[in-house]
Specification:
With about 250 residues, the chain is mainly β. It has a single domain, classed as Porin (Beta Barrel), CATH 2.40.160.20. Helix content is about 15%, strand content about 65%. The chain contains 1 helix and 12 strands. The longest helix has about 35 residues. The chain is elongated, with a radius of gyration of 37 Å.
């Protein structure tokens, strides 16, 4: 074997490990090009109201009302007597259901609109008593079983997870008006019940918890129509019941 042949074989053996390393890194680089850049996984954001173009929902709610203003006076043959001011107070709970649609706006918020039907059970009532001459005169009013139809609309925050809304609507409820006059051991009682209409307005917020669930809170005002209640041919009163309430609820959207 010549010196030149010995040198060539030795050089080839020394080059083998280097070639293997170069081939490994070249293969890794080529594989990386095929798979593309590696990026972090997307982080989930809170559910937006605008993610559903339209949706039906059902819900439960509970509230407490007070702060009404219904002055009770008794009209009698001898004149009109002021008995006192009624402040209808009580707790109530209800069922509701509705539909809402969503429109995007140019300010980065979603406009939400729709309607809601609700039914509230529970009673808000109050009574007053006054001495007129030698007689004790009592008057009371009570509201129960209120059915409502509301139009609701509002804007979400920029994240789309909270809806700020206002509502206007019509209500129907049972209104019971009573009065009594006690003279010594004699007592005369009067009562009138009717199904009466009125209007309601509220302002509130709804926060998305998940794709389907949300919680709500609102401040509402309810005013029923004024009515002259005729107890009999001799006695009557004017009834104008109202109340203000704070309501919380839970909705499930389909």
């Amino acid at each position: 074997m010549t010196v030149l042949e010995h040198f060539s074989i030795a050089s080839f053996r020394q080059a083998l490990p280097v070639a293997s390393v170069v081939t490994f890194f070249a293969s890794a680089t080529f594989a990386g090009d095929l798979t593309g850049d590696i990026s972090d996984p997307d982080v989930g954001s809170p559910k937006r109201f605008g993610s559903d173009v339209s949706a039906f929902y059902l819900g439960l709610s509970a509230g407490y009302g007070s702060g009404g203003d219904d002055r009770f006076g008794l009209r009698a043959p001898a004149g009109v007597f002021e008995i006192g001011e009624l402040d209808l107070t009580g707790s109530y709970g209800g069922l509701r259901g509705g539909w809402r649609g969503v429109l995007p706006t140019s300010i980065g918020r979603d406009y939400v609109y729709g309607f809601e039907v609700g039914y509230d059970f529970g009673t808000l009532d109050d009574n007053v008593t006054n001495q007129i001459g030698g007689d004790t005169v009592q008057g009371s009013s009570a509201i129960s079983d209120v059915l409502s139809l509301r139009i609701k609309n509002g804007l979400t925050n920029r994240k789309g997870s909270v809806l700020y809304f206002v509502s206007l609507g019509y209500v129907w409820g049972d209104v019971e008006t009573t009065s009594s006059i006690t003279s010594g051991s004699s007592r005369r009682a009067f009562e009138d019940s009717d199904r009466r209409g009125g209007f309601t307005a509220s302002i509130g917020a709804e926060h998305k918890l998940s794709d389907n669930w949300s919680i709500t809170g609102e401040y509402e005002f309810v005013q029923f129509q004024s009515k002259d209640v005729q107890f009999n041919s001799n006695f009557s009163t004017k009834s104008t019941p109202s109340y203000r309430g704070l309501r919380f609820g839970l909705n499930y959207a389909f």
